[in-house]
Amino acid sequence: MIGAAEAWRKAARGALQDGISPDQIMWGDADAPEDLFDTFEVARGRAEAVTVPRSFIALANRVVWHSDPSRFARLYGFVWRLRDAPHLITDRGDADLATLRAMEKNVRRCQHKMKAFVRFREIGEAEANRRSFAAWFEPTHFTVEPTADFFVRRFADMDWRIYTPSVSAVFEDGKLRLEAGCDKPDLPHDGGEELWVTYFQNIFNPARLKVQAMTSEMPKKYWKNMPEAASIPQMIADAPARARAMAEAAPTLPHIRVDRVLAQAQAHQSAWDGPAAGLPAAIRNCARCELACHATQAVLGEGPKTAPLMIVGEQPGDKEDLQGRPFVGPAGQLFDEIAEEVGLDRSQAYVTNAVKHFKFKAQGRRRIHQRPNRSEIDQCRWWLDAEVRRVAPRLIVAMGATAAEALTGNGDAILKRRGTVQIADGHPPVLITLHPSYILRARDIDTRLQAAEQLRVDLRRAVDLVAAPRKLASA
Amino acid sequence: MVQRSVQEKLAILSDAAKYDASCASSGSTKRDSRDGKGLGSNEGSGICHAYAPDGRCISLLKILMTNFCIYDCAYCMNRVSSNVTRARFSVDEVVKLTIDFYRRNYIEGLFLSSGIIRSPDATMEDMVCIARKLRHEEHFRGYIHLKTIPDAAPELIEEAGLLADRLSINVELPTDAAVKSYAPEKKPEQIRAAMADVRLRKEVARDRTHTGRRAPKFAPAGQSTQMIVGADGSNDAAVLGQSTRLYSSYKLKRVYYSAFSPIPDASSKLPLVSPPLQREHRLYQADWLLRFYGFDLDEITGVTPDGNLDLGIDPKLAWALQHRGLFPMDVNRASREMLLRVPGFGVKTVQRILGTRRHRALRYEDLQRMGASLKKARAFITAVGWTPRNLTDSADLRARFAPPPEQLNLL
Fold it and tell me: If contacts are CB pairs under 8 Å, which of residues 320-349 in chain B contact chain A?
């Protein structure tokens, strides 16, 4: 069969030019190539140049590889009709063409299956320069010759041979040659096959059995030369029981490591999703609300990354905005004083603000503090949540209404709520207290002293709670 | 921990990977290794090298790098709280396995996914390393599909796109609310941002530089995603609405629908019934109608009052039965758009009809030879020698196509 396409084309072209009608030609058989193109003794007509549509050539180039002995005659019969009616090649309702197209489809499918189902075994020596593989394959049609080039394109850096009953393809040192077919050779055992079978068995989902979908694409006739196919019947037989077992198995309790791993995962994720090390830079570049275009800079939190206590104020003030550090203005200094009195070491706490940019109104040469509105608090909660998750403190102290709103979603009635600990799922507990600036702004001395005392009490409580986590749980 | 053999790891990590539906290996750049300096080729259309009894093709070596995971997604057998056996491949093991399988003609390439270990960046880095070794050390020219981790660093996504043919990020479930409740660590907006990023990078890579040089191709086979169907309460209208948004927003090549199937050691949160395979099938049919047949979403999902597709008959037939006034259609005169709406006619059949009727009038037998499914189509068409008479309007038309009613199980 080697070279059949070329041979048929030559013979057909000659016959067409000589005007030999289909019933005058007896096309030979694949098994006897020497009589392939016997012609009757006929009176030769005038020789004329013939043209056939390009798409017919493509069709013929596939159909010649079909195993049906009538293919040559059918092709010639159709090309004979094309002489007078070239449009027939696009007439999908024509019975002759329909047969040829069906044959073409068979060959194409057979080629495709050859590309898919050839299974190589390694035959070369381990230390050889080029790796060497061989396969035994039994195609339905004469597909080796038209398909060999696919394997050349794909496996050019190794030697390979594909043996089939009709034709064998051998590729050695970068050269392809076709040889006569042979009987099934004895190929050596290849350890790669066990891995492949393992893969095949495990990629199968027993809960969805669609055997017909498998066999229509991978017909049984190919199974005998595919190492994985041997396990198919057992896989099908076991599938319903395996699926049932999965459905019936009661959910098991999670492994004890789960909490640890989940906590670790929590550390990776936050309202803000970049890598942890990039958080400061991201906050500095924040432009989530308008405040960013007016303030000098975003003021980041300060303190150990694993601080047990987190203190959250309202927003940077004038001083903080200029220096870029939290709690350095008058309110910050007051906070420091009180903190020292109750034994709160500020350097051991993480100190930050609910809103990272200074919001103010310019009045002459002064900047007048403005309370951030709800949307600004919401925008900035993005960063605050990221800080909370990253530090994961045992307790957060929310100073003032803004911090309380950002952390608990409610900034009302601070005077009433101060001193209470609010607990929400997935969040560290939040102790609500007054903001030091409330003390500074108070008009009469009594209110000021009372407020300072309240802040002192609350901060002392915070120190106690952090020192004794058990109390925290019952707070 | 015990050292597992490669075979044991392969068993665990392919078992863990099977819930990803995608196995496509088509649509990438054409390339081969005819020069003898590399291994592998890619010719446009993919090849399915085997089929498993679940009806799915095996085209790629589809494995997880590891099934350890710090996330706790309820629908996933690899979630941190599940007690499945865990394993982890080294970079070199995956590379060797891929090459050894490829040389034996078992696969078209690698589809690598992974549980999240340590951090998203660390995981993505190992995956990129595998792709890099395959491409640059083994000179592998086959297909590589990398499952991208949405919150990995941009440099890693960039390199992944240059090494791989396809990138994918799973949206997992049809609605944001479902993702939030079943996959607490995943964020829908972040997944969308990652898909937008891939689309933008692809578009940038398509532009020439000012010197006219082409930038290296970024994920030439595009990006795809997967949605699990049947785990949450979303109806088909919600599922298809989500996929049309995804197709249009991020220029996805495919949205895969995966019928939620029972998994080993399942979470108590989920319904462990047999997977809704029929529903999955209908969704794919509807997806095709939306993309290749000119149907609108409302036309397909508006057929039934509850927004779910008819499981008994295919969505095109369901639409046609609701719009019988448009039929029967004359195959010799109807436009391409209308022919595409005839049940039983595919895109190829329509092309053949149009090609042939330029020369002559079509008969019923012609249609048979053109590959039309006349069992379905004949009630909706007229041709020379065929008219359906009152078949089109007969009351029992649906019953001719739908499967016979099933007796309910009394127990």
Answer: none
Is residue A53 packed enough to be buried (19+ CB in 10 Å), middle (13-18) or exposed (0-12)?
middle
The tokens 């019952």 sit on which residue? A474
The domains of chain B are located at 6-275, 315-401
Identify all chain B residues contacting A150, using CB atoms and an 8 Å cutoff.
41, 43
CB atoms within 10 A of CB B245: 14
Interface test with B, best of A130, A189, A208, A223 (most B CBs within 10 A): A208
For the ranges A208-222, A235-249, A274-288, which has the lowest average pLDDT?
A: A274-288
Domain residue ranges of chain A, discontinuous segments joined by +: 4-114, 120-180, 198-248, 265-474
CA distances from B388 to B298, B325, B381 (A): 28, 14, 7
The CATH number of domain A265-474, selected from 3.40.50.2000, 3.40.470.10, 3.30.420.10, 3.30.420.40: 3.40.470.10
Binding-face residues of A in 258-297 toward B, CB within 8 A: 258, 261-262, 264-265, 268-269, 273-275
- A115–chain B Cβ distance below 8 A for any pair: yes
Return residues 112-131 of B near A (CB < 8 Å). Answer: 116, 119-121
- For B349, name the nearest residue in chain A, comparing CA atoms only: A92
Chain A positions touching B94 (Cβ under 8 A) are: none
Tokens of B174: 């049809």
CB contact, 8 Å: A159 with chain B? Answer: no
Q: Which residue type, as a one-letter code, is found at position A389?
A: R
CB contacts of A94 in chain B (<8 Å) are: 369
B176 or B96: which leads in pLDDT: B96
Residue B210 C-alpha, separation from nearest chain A C-alpha, in angstroms: 31
Q: Identify the residue with better confidence: B307 or A170.
A: A170
Phi and psi torsions of A135, nearest 5°: -140, 150
User: DSSP strand E in B208-303: where?
Assistant: 223-229, 254-259
Lowest mean pLDDT, pick from A265-279, B23-37, B162-176: A265-279
* DSSP E strand boundaries for B91-222: 109-113, 143-147, 166-168
Q: Which residue of A has its CA nearest to B190?
A: A273
Could you tell me the CATH superfamily of domain B6-275? Aldolase class I (3.20.20.70)
* Token pair recorded at residue A394: 């045992």
- Rounded to two decimals, the ipTM of the complex is 0.89
pTM over 0.90: no
